[in-house]
Automatic annotation (TrEMBL):
Record's keyword terms, sorted: Bacterial flagellum, Cell membrane, Cell projection, Chemotaxis, Cilium, Flagellar rotation, Flagellum, Membrane
Subcellular location: Bacterial flagellum basal body; Cell membrane
NCBIfam families, sorted: fliM_switch
Membrane topology according to the record: Peripheral membrane protein
CDD domains membership: FliM
SUPFAM superfamilies: CheC-like (SSF103039), Surface presentation of antigens (SPOA) (SSF101801)
Pfam family, one: FliM
Name assigned to this protein: Flagellar motor switch protein FliM
Gene3D superfamilies linked to this entry: CheC-like, SpoA-like
Keyword Glycosyltransferase: no
InterPro entries for the chain: CheC-like_sf, Flag_FliM, FliN-like_C, SpoA-like_sf
Length: 333
């Protein structure tokens, strides 16, 4: 990783070199020395910085969708935001969460494999309390879920996972489906302990209760679509052609658009004195010969050359030529 110096650090370095406190030759020797960095094979780096940035962008949208969903369901103040997106071994994630927590195990077709939405007990029980008519506060002592509480939790988070589909729509059309709800991390083994996962941590506040919601995505699950998480894919996807239905609708709207069309017979210049002295029967000579075609303007641009005539005793024009694209005006002087 290349270190970027601030302007103050650059000024201090130049001052040290000019005063003789530092020797430029010694700095060159340090740069030529080989630098060894320790690498832990148990913490394999599978996600690049580019992938992490894309996951952050996707799940910032997910956090906004969750905020809207929970605010509507719980009818109280809810604030959710992305705190961190990092990669770590699955075993380290399991050891970092409470022994009693809410683990929503789900799949998202067409991706193969399982993912986990872990909700801190404080947050989960505050939601439960609010759904059952309470004020939305977490109990002092958290015990195991009853059958009724489990059903309510499953319904809450099953619908919450639908917002994940909206957040991922720009990358892949996934179909999240809640598979099971667990409370003991030891009973949940979705991948091997050393498998690298992407952990998206969401800070959650419900009323006065705060806690974390963690989304665990194993690398093996999203490995087939990793190229779609690159910045290059995001720029290319923005240039995709419109869907046929959208293009057809756009064409229909364009066909109904009204544009002014003017067939210009010619031009002439007269003085104000001549204009004021005009009377019935006077003839104004135009600068265009009678044998030349008329310029037909669409808006302000010449698009056709036509010849004048009549149709059923009405003035009309007949298109004789289409002006080449890029030619704005035709002048005859």
């Amino acid at each position: 990783m290349v270190d970027v110096l601030s302007q103050n650090e650059i000024d201090a370095l130049l001052a040290a070199l000019s005063s003789g406190e530092m020797d430029a030759e010694e700095l060159k020797k340090e740069d030529t020395q080989k630098k060894v960095r320790a690498y832990d094979f148990k913490r394999a780096t599978r996600f690049s910085k580019d992938h992490i940035r894309s996951l952050t962008r996707i799940h910032e949208n997910f956090a906004r969708f969750l905020t809207t969903y929970f605010s509507a369901q719980l009818r109280t103040f809810v604030q959710i935001s992305v705190v961190q997106v990092e990669q770590l071994p699955y075993d380290e994630f399991i050891r970092s969460i409470p022994k009693m927590t809410i683990l929503n195990i789900f799949e998202a077709e067409p991706l193969e494999g399982r993912m986990v939405l872990e909700v801190h007990p404080n947050v989960a029980f505050a939601m439960l309390d609010r759904m059952l008519g309470g004020g939305g506060s977490a109990p002092g002592k958290i015990g195991s879920l009853t059958e009724i509480e489990t059903i309510i939790m499953e319904k809450i988070f099953s619908r919450a996972l639908e917002t994940l589909q909206e957040a991922w729509r720009t990358v892949l059309d996934i179909q999240p489906r809640l598979e099971a709800l667990e409370t003991n991390p030891q009973f949940m083994q979705i991948v091997s302990p050393n498998e690298t996962i992407a952990l998206i941590s969401l800070s959650t506040k419900i009323g006065e209760t705060t806690g974390m919601i963690n989304l665990c995505i194993p690398h093996v699950v999203i490995e087939p679509i990793m190229p779609k998480l690159s910045v290059h894919h995001w720029f290319v996807s923005q240039k995709k052609t419109r869907a046929p239905e959208e293009q057809h609708m756009l064409e229909q709207r364009l066909n109904k658009a009204k544009l002014p069309i003017i067939a210009e017979l010619g031009m002439s210049r007269i003085s104000i004195r001549e204009f004021l002295s005009l009377s019935v029967g006077d003839v104004i000579a135009l600068q265009k010969p009678t044998g030349e075609g008329l310029e037909v303007k669409v808006g302000e641009k010449v698009k056709f050359i036509a010849s004048p005539g009549t149709v059923r005793d009405k003035l009309a024009i007949q298109i004789e030529e289409i002006v080449s694209e890029g030619v704005d005006e035709i002048h005859d002087e």
